Amino acid sequence: MSKQQAPDSLEVFENIRRRVAARDLTPVYVLVGEESFFTDILQDHFTALVDESLRDFNLDVFYGTETPINRVLEAARSYPMMTDRRVVLVRQFLHQFDLRERPQDTDSAGNPIKTTAEESVQLLTAYLEQPNPSTVLVLIDTRTPNGNTRLGKALQSKAGNRITYGAFNALRENDMPGWIVRWTEHRHPGWSMEPDAAQRMSARMGPHPGAVSTELEKLCTLIRTPRAITTADVEANVPITREFSVFELKDAVLDRNQERAAFILEQMLRSSDSDLGEVFKTVGFFHSMFTNLWAIHGLRAKRVPDDQISGQLSLGGGYYFILKKDADRFRPHDWALVFEALHDADRAAKGFGNMDAAGILHMLLKRLIRA
């Protein structure tokens, strides 16, 4: 039986948001993962559970780098004043259990109270067994607790519906267009985003959902009437904010994606101080990379073991296995075309011909992609 796929970040976010809005609450929330965009929004929803006029008495915001767990739990065990609910938020809460980084408490005289990491875990797990029903304790961190540890097992337990656990993984480049389509429909009912427009928006802004969401708000405000957002809308109104590197250009070339390679190159040239300098840097990078790929391809054809190849070429194990996969994308007769294209680009950059820098690079990419 195949393992059931975990829900994605948007599904987790919407489920928690909907239940918090309906006041269908659990005493403890654990919100973890690299994508802080979702946890930041949820923090606002938890804050809104307390009337603004009563937040001085019933809302505590702590940082795990500064506040030890016993002080957090002291606040969590306190009863609300003039209302029925208290909210205690802890950001970077896993620092409270680090061997070296956790903050220490002090007594009334200012003397440090030594608490081990294990004792800190025991304090929290004891609270999780009997949490204060009038407090919502929200634990937030960009890291994820190890599920094999006592702390990780306690936080992910659903026994008695005491804990809501939400993991928010960082969105990858390939995930962004689909996420933009779904986020548009989720955040702006009545609106939609055409798939090509989502692709263009992702290319312009990169895998940064917070920035994308902000630009989407601006775009809907500008257009006013709910409808499908088109590629023309994106190109006319969404700025190019991401910076591209030669490594992303390499990925586009190896994927044989001419349109993406041309787009990345244009952005690199736009931000470069010297177009000719960009030519030499890019040609040098591709020459070094393809030399390694060609060598790997040839040595593997001779059945040389991987460890010997990586050692002979002075390539780290992890980097070697990435290059090995890239080398598999080429056939033996492709290499002559690759190195001929690199040679011609190098000569053109040195003045043998009348092409400008942008033309040299565009022609190089086209030839490499067709090789």
What can you tell me about this protein's structure?
The chain has about 375 residues and is of the alpha/beta class. The protein has three domains: about 10-165, Rossmann fold (3-Layer(aba) Sandwich), CATH 3.40.50.300; about 175-235, Orthogonal Bundle (Helicase, Ruva Protein, domain 3); about 245-370, Up-down Bundle (Zinc Finger, Delta Prime, domain 3). It has 17 helices and nine strands. It has helices at about 10-20, 35-45, 55-60, 70-75, 115-130, 150-155, 175-185, 195-205, 210-225, 230-235, 245-255, 260-270, 275-300, 305-310, 315-325, 335-350, 355-370, and strands spanning about 30, 60-65, 85-90, 105, 110-115, 135-140, 165, 190-195, 230. The strands form three sheets. Strands 2-3-6-1-7 form a five-stranded parallel beta sheet, with helices on both faces. The chain is globular.
What keywords describe this structure?
371 residues, globular, two-stranded antiparallel sheet, Zinc Finger, Delta Prime, domain 3, 3 domains, Rossmann fold, alpha/beta, 54% helix, Helicase, Ruva Protein, domain 3, single chain
CATH topology type of the largest domain: Rossmann fold
Instruction: Give the total of beta strands.
Output: 9
Cα-based radius of gyration, to the nearest Å: 27 Å
The CATH superfamily label of the largest domain reads: P-loop containing nucleotide triphosphate hydrolases
